[in-house]
Amino acid sequence: MSGVTAFQAPDVETRRGRWWILVAMVFGLFMPMLDNLVVNVAMPTIQRRLGAGISELQWIIDAYTLAFAAFMLTGGTLGDIYGRKRLFTTGLAVFSLGSLACAMSSNIHELIAFRIIQGLGGALILPGSLAIITANFQGRERGAAIGIWSAISGLAIAIGPLIGGYLVQYVSWESIFFINVPIGVVAIGLTLAVVPESKDTSGKRRLDIRGAVTGTLGLFFLVYATIEGNPRGWSNWLIIVSYALSAALLIAFWSMERRSKAPMLPLRFFRNRTFSAGVAVAACVFFSLFGVMFFFSLYLQNVKGYSPIGAGERLLPLTVMILLVAPIAGQLSDRFGSRWLMASGTLVLAAGLAMFLRVGSNASYTTLILPAMVVISTGIALTLSPMSAAIMGSQDPTQAGIASAVQTTSQQTGGVAGVALLGALITASFDRSFAAKLTASGFPHPVVRAILSKAAKSAAGGALRPSQAPPHVKREVIHTIILAAHESFMHATHTGIYLAIGFALLASVLSVLFVRNHVTTTTSKPCVPPQETSSLAERASTPARRQ
What we know:
With 547 residues, this protein is mainly α. It has 16 helices and no strands. The protein has 3 domains: 1-205, MFS general substrate transporter like domains (Growth Hormone, Chain: A); 209-259; 269-416 and 497-547, MFS general substrate transporter like domains (Growth Hormone, Chain: A, Up-down Bundle), CATH 1.20.1250. It has helices at residues 15-50, 54-82, 84-103, 108-136, 139-170, 175-178, 180-194, 209-232, 237-259, 273-303, 308-336, 339-355, 365-393, 400-440, 445-456, 478-514. Helix 2 (54-82) runs antiparallel to helix 14 (400-440), helix 10 packs parallel to helix 14 (400-440) and helix 10 packs antiparallel against helix 16 (478-514). The longest helix has 41 residues, at 400-440.
């Protein structure tokens, strides 16, 4: 990714000029970072305005994340070959145009399609920004620059819920996408003005087209089948064929990458147990985080009845705690190693998720929801920095760029799987529970089917309104229907949380069994610091000894 072995050194003559480069990188990175939680807060409003069902809401998140994850490694390689500045500005343009198209969407299918374009742009922006910083800064300045880069990206994620809530509540849901356009225009102009071009001149980088195609399509069909399994039926021929195609394509991807001289995903990295375990832990943690937070955003607005800005305010402690704890975890990791911090962090994450099992439709935010969020965010913060340090410390410093990209891809893929798999599980559980409650309340089967059909278009029933009840249902029983929907939504969410807890515990076991501490007593030159899409406020220093 970074082309650290051979690159055209840019002519950056002054210290001021180098810091203007950092300003350009931070400004451009702000957009995709901000998008992480802004869209989540807008979900209930988008669901009501565009008539989206639960699978469509999942696709709004996963279309972006899947494109981002699938093209991350390709985006970095293209930048090394054709020029990092060129690809970074291209990514800004693609992301801005995708945002504009999202804002102008007239239906849910257009929005999903344009979110893919946003994801493609983000896949060019993130690796390009870190590679440009690496090429233009040396020594301590590089560490400081990447530390600022990481902190600003964390700040964007932290204020995302508030900005999203404000825009959705006081402007419109479209404004969360419109806001990216002027930011993108300024970022493009600044990049063209102050950033010198750089590329890998070693001639060793090659674009792995076969790997990109098979890997991307394999992931797509897997996510498609998982999300669409509930509405279409798990025995539907399209679902079965999609799973079969996914398996065949992913097997082909693995086989091609093993034989390729310039693989998109260097499988040799996975011979190192610490690297393999670290990447698996990254996927498990983001599986739990993305999946649970997707439904928690719906819960706050659809069940608890908070306004968009109210939901954004109540999500703020999650990101603030990560910003506060992650730097401390990074310092502890540098001193004591990653293994036990990762193991304990994922256990704390599991404990926080278990606390959510006590949350019901009438739960107090102060006494139940907030403590659970604090514990969850603390567990994540204790895990992220040590996990990055372990992954990066397990590889040679000259491979830091591609190792970091693999970590980021693993995180995003885990997030995609979390939204897809937990969504499928929660939706199926909701349908069963809601139908059972309605039947027990004395509703005839035709009425139950009609109500379930409405609930399917209301984010698992969380946003059912009296006006959505079938005309022949008496007004006096509407309250019973909505109460049953909310209780079923919470029951289904708890079912999904059990799976999320299982993944968090698996991450803890993997950390104990396979991760080896990266701490070394010898003085060595630090490698390129690890960064990833949702790193928030991780420290940007990693020892360089290969494990």
